[in-house]
């Protein structure tokens, strides 16, 4: 899936900059990574690429991150991609900075959503989720 072009044409205002995008394998993360690259930034793209909880929908996978990498590189940008969760983020950032020379922009996009609804319990006690401590 290709992200659709959104907004004005690229201005290259991020030439020479490096951006970190978490949750970069698909969706908004992919779109952020591609747009930053179109604006001139090199990209450090990070995603867990696997299930982290029972979500009710398929998690991003390695193929998704590879597609993001292909799309970013198609802009002429350099890219360092890492399959990791937040526990490996420091190492991924260190490797990206070592390869690309700096870090200027951070898009903290990673996240999951388990569609349960407000006030619905996931616990066996029946307590609404809004009352958890």
Number of domains: 1
SS-derived structural category: alpha/beta
* Cross-sheet strand order for the largest sheet: 3-2-1-4
Give me the count of strands.
4
**Poorly predicted ranges (pLDDT <50, ≥5 residues)?**
123-133
Shape: globular
The CATH architecture comes to 3-Layer(aba) Sandwich
Tell me the radius of gyration.
17 Å
Say which CATH homologous superfamily is assigned.
NAD(P)-binding Rossmann-like Domain
CATH topology: Rossmann fold
**N-to-C span:** 40 Å
Sequence of secondary-structure elements: EHEHEHE
What is the CATH C level class, in words? Alpha Beta
Number of helices: 3
Please indicate the percent range of residues in DSSP E strands (runs of 2 or more): 5-15%
Helix content: 25-40%
Please state the average pLDDT score.
85
Describe the largest sheet.
Answer: 4 strands, parallel
Summarize the structure.
This protein has 133 residues and is α/β, with parallel strands linked by helices.
Polypeptide structure, described:
- The protein is an alpha/beta fold and 133 residues long.
- The chain has one domain: 3-Layer(aba) Sandwich (Rossmann fold).
- The protein is 27% helix and 14% strand.
- It is built from three helices and four strands.
- Strands 3-2-1-4 form a four-stranded parallel sheet, sandwiched between helices.
- Helix 1 runs parallel beside helix 2 (62-73).
- The longest helix has 12 residues, at 27-38.
- The radius of gyration is 17 Å and the shape is globular.
- Residues 123-133 have low confidence and may be disordered.
Strand and helix layout:
Layout: E1 18-22, H1 27-38, E2 42-47, H2 62-73, E3 79-83, H3 89-100, E4 105-107
Parallel strand pairs: 1-2, 1-4, 2-3
Helix pairs in contact: 1-2
